Each structure stands twice: as C-alpha cells, then as structure tokens.
Amino acid sequence: MKTVAIVSALAGAASAAQGAWGQCGGNGWTGETTCVSGYTCTKSNDYYSQCIPGTNTLVTSTKAATTTTKPTSTAGSGGAQPTSGAGGKLKWLGVSESVAEFGQGTYPGTYGKDFYFPDNSAVQTLISQGYNIFRVAFAMERLVPNTLTNSLEPRYLANLTTTINAITNAGAYAVLDPHNYGRYYGNIITDTNAFQSFWNKLATQFKSNSKVIFDTNNEYHDMDQTLVLNLNQAAINGIRAAGATSQYIFVEGNSYTGAWTWTQVNTNLAALTDPQNKIVYEMHQYLDSDGSGTSATCVSSTIGVERVQAATKWLRDNNKQGVIGEFAGGANPTCKTAVTGLLDHLKANSDVWTGALWWAAGPWWGDYIYSFEPPSGTGYTYYNQLLKTYM
Ligand SMILES: *[C@@H]1O[C@H](CO)[C@@H](O)[C@H](O)[C@H]1NC(C)=O
Q: Could you tell me if 363 and 76 are in contact, meaning their C-beta atoms sit under 8 angstroms apart?
C-alpha cells in the first residue's frame, strides 16, 4: 500500500501517439511521448516509460505512507502445488490483516496506541465464510529492535504467533508480512546476510507449521533491481536453511510490486531459485487512476483485467505462479465491475494465478474506503457477497 504522485495529463499533444505497450519515454528517448487513447505513459525507471492501459496520468513512485497513522475514529479501541489448469478455481482468497505494522516510524511504539494485533473474532468470522488466507502485516523494527541481526523480541513475537496460530489452527493459511518496503528504520536494507539471518530466525519459529507462508517483504520500491533480487534470494535461502521446507514463499518486486509495471521492472526476478520449488510471485494491483489504492474511484469497469494481463503472460511464459497480494476497489458499481473482471481473469488463468487478497481488514481501519473488517467495514459490506463467489 502506498501513495504516488500524479503528474498532470499528457492529453492535447498534437503529434501521433505511441501504441499499446510501446515505449514512450526515458533518458535519451526521442520518440513519441504520448499514448493512444486508453493508454497511459507510465514511468518504470529513468530509462524506460511504457504505454499501459489506463487514463492519461504519469506515475512516479514516492514514499509509502498509507499505514503510518491509524484512523482516529476507532483508534485505541480496540503442500500441494497451486491449482493448475486454466479456468479452474483459485487456491486462495483472503485479506490482509493490517494493524501490527501501524505507527510506522514509532518504534517500538506502544501496544494499543501505536499498533495492535488483528481481532481474532473478526478473523474467525471471515474464515467461517470461506476466506482461507490472511496476510498479517508486522514491523521488522518491533520484531528485531535496533539491529537486523538481533534476536527476536519475545513479546511482540508471542503476540504475532498467537495471531498466526489462530488462523492456521482454523485451517486457513497465514502469511507473515514484514511490512517494510525493503527498509529497516527507514533505510534501504543492503546487507543481504543480515536479511538472510532475520529470515532464518523467523522461519525457525514457524518451520513446523505448513500453513504459514513467508512473504519476503512488502513493496520494495526505488531500490536497485539487483538488490531486490538478492534480498529475495537471501530470504529464500535463510528460510530453507532453517528447516522450513514445506511452506510457500511469496516474493515481491520493486516499484511497489505492481502487477501493471511488473514486466518492465521485475523480469530479473525470474532467476530466483528455491530447492522446494514453492515460490509464488506476489503482485499488488489497485484500480484507481494512479494505482495507489487511495481513491474510491476506479479508472473504468475494465481496468482490473487490463492492469494484470501482461503479468499473466509473464507468469505463463516463465512457468511461474503468482498471487495478487493486495487489491481493492471503492464501494461503487464501476469498481465492482472492475473487481469482478480482475477476479474472473485470475480464475480463468488459475494455472498461473493462485489467488488474491483484499486490502485490508483490521480493527483500526474505521470508515476507510476499503475496510474489510466485519461486520460493518465499507469494503466488507459492499464486496463480501461478490468475493465469496470465487471460493
Ligand atoms: C502483547 O499483547 C498483550 C495483550 O495480550 C499486551 O498486553 C502486550 O502489551 C503486547 N505486547 C506487544 C509487544 O505487542
């Protein structure tokens, strides 16, 4: 989850426009800089911009900020390989549980004030309706204070473990999500050995629970692309060396792991290796104009499928499995159609897509536009019936 800056529209340029998926910018680029109708010139890095389906905005990545503060309205209250075969069923449908990572920048922070843990009764309500995967966000700075090679802080670990076990004991999968954007105390993690050691320690705690999934890190962004590859590989190596061999590992990419920019940014991640062959490429996709997931307005009723189809092809061409680890739309008919299109597409391509997780549930989201917290979250009340049809 992130915010992005929007540079104003390119509409009105007189020259011919670049076609779908064509290059439209980058250092030294002298060709067309506008896109045909329905496509957006989207910057992937200083050297390459591409025409991607969507309206006329330029997207530039900026600092993640969405969960740095909690909403005030309710503050303080509170085995087998993934499904194969096109047209099959999604293996996973669930939500992110977001609250233990709140209070970003305030470490360790105060339990009940800066951060909290998911509400188990709300989680069980979702499980009883069929949701079978929960991505539990947490802050690395609280789990390993001060230095990345430190031992795990026992009280935060105990609370996190209680949350995870309540999910997996009920038969669902629990994703451990260090919600850190490839950073630790705000600095890009460059010490891959320390990162491997962190994952080795964490995986050791959960190595006998096959319903746990390890998510290397939330939304790497504005980082060296080889470093993103190396951090993901270090995590995999640390996890497997711990003896955690039965679990899936979700890897994430640069540029906030966006599905819509994946094929321009993250193709080097195809080189990741896992002796257990249980890597799943986690991508995020929002449907608002800048793809940031900060607006209840979706670009169009078809934007869901448009923004993921290139990633679908990449997964299949590279014989990989993927998951949409974050998606959402506002509570309105255009978004509902776009979300339906997205999920229909994932289901129709379930040889490569394993599932999807809504952003987000948690006890502190209040009246947030996407809140999936039962019983009255805006997203939950509007989308629960629809999402249940994909289980
Ligand atoms: C863990 O949860 C308990 C309540 O069950 C709370 O009192 C404590 O402060 C929490 N500690 C941390 C570090 O999360």
A: no
